[in-house]
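Section 5.1 Outputs to date
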Amino acid sequence: MPDPAADAPARSQRRLSPGRVRGVMALFVGLHSLSLLALWPTIARGEALGDLVLYRDWAVNAFRGDEIMGITTDWVYPLMAWLPIGVANLFGPNAYQIVWFAMVTILNFFATALLLRASADARHPYAAYVWLGTIAVLSPVAMLRLEGVVAPVVVMALLVLSRFPFIAGVMLAVATWIKVWPAAVIAAVVAARRGGGRIIPAGIIVTAGITVVASLTGGLSHLMSFLSLQTSRALQIESPLATIPMVLDGLGGSGFYQYYNKVLLTTELGGPVPELVAVMSTPLMLAMLLIVAVLIWLQGRRGVDTRQLMLTGALALATALFVLNKVGSPQFMLWILPIVVVGMVTTDSWWSRPAMLTVAASVLTTIVFPLMYPLLLQVHLLPILILAARNALLVWLLVIAVIRLVRFRTLCPTPTDDSEPSAGPDAVAATETASGAEAVRGAKIADTDGSAAADAEADDASAHHAASRSGASSEPA
């Protein structure tokens, strides 16, 4: 039996100091207090801002027994979007804004607390800082749209995945039935073979429950309407696929034009080229998602580090959903942020690059919306160029994620057994140490015979054992 006293130094090393915890929580309280202060005039008047105005109207109509979106008519959102939209109206329409704010704040608190608990480097809780800072930057959408509810749920699900895969599966399934994008995370988990055997049953149970509710309420025919509404829409002006047409439009003489879609409440781009891009976007996106999923699956069969494979695959899938989407709404940055911050708690230095790209893209996103959005609608060149820079960062993020997936055999060759409990931070560091050693010796091993390869495997085992005892960490090549 292991000696608890012998493990005390390792546990102490992993534990964040009280000062660090207080600093992160002070930042949490400060940022959310500033958001509450900014929203207070709206709250005091009993009004709502942003998309909450639309959510509140839907909720009021449903509570009165009038039209119920997704039940009596088609809806742009999956049916479980009613969970946060309806909860926010429990105390009446005048309290809608404050209840929504409280709901998002509570979810953000638990996500932040779990990030702190999972931080492997006691000196640098960067993941929590990036999480809170980016939420603050994106607060116009993070506090006022459905992604603000879904993003912290995905953070929590990813952090409890190894220890409680079924619970994580339920959380991810619910998040997917609120906003579709967490399906990318589920796909990465299953393809990487990291708890997929318990994720899938959880998703089936949640989906079956939603189907039963839709059937009993007479809304079964509208259950999947969110997919048909998305596939039939035109090219939104903020989408990465609209970048070149928007730049040409800003330079003048392109023949493109903007118009407001009254059904989907968004500004879209018209003209022969944008219409062609809109038609091609869905098959292109599906093809890219399939390629990435197959790549994750193949690398999983080769015995790479499944935790890093799953997170990198989820990042590639979520970013592909964004980059190749006909829609490019500002809240879509919250598709990427949860995966990046969970990747950061592994202390793998590779995640610093996605983190920097995500923060930079989030800053540019907020500059465009809401700060310069009226100018964007007036086809001013400056906000178009800022938006183009944001979209270029997203393409770059997708490229580096796919490249890492391709190179995983070199970067992370150590297999992970999903049947075992979640590896602690020291074990992750040990895996990364062994992975780095393997990367350095890769060319040498490739040129040796079978006995030399066996010696190399023995060396790897020794390096893994030494790293586990010392708690040392080295970065992948």
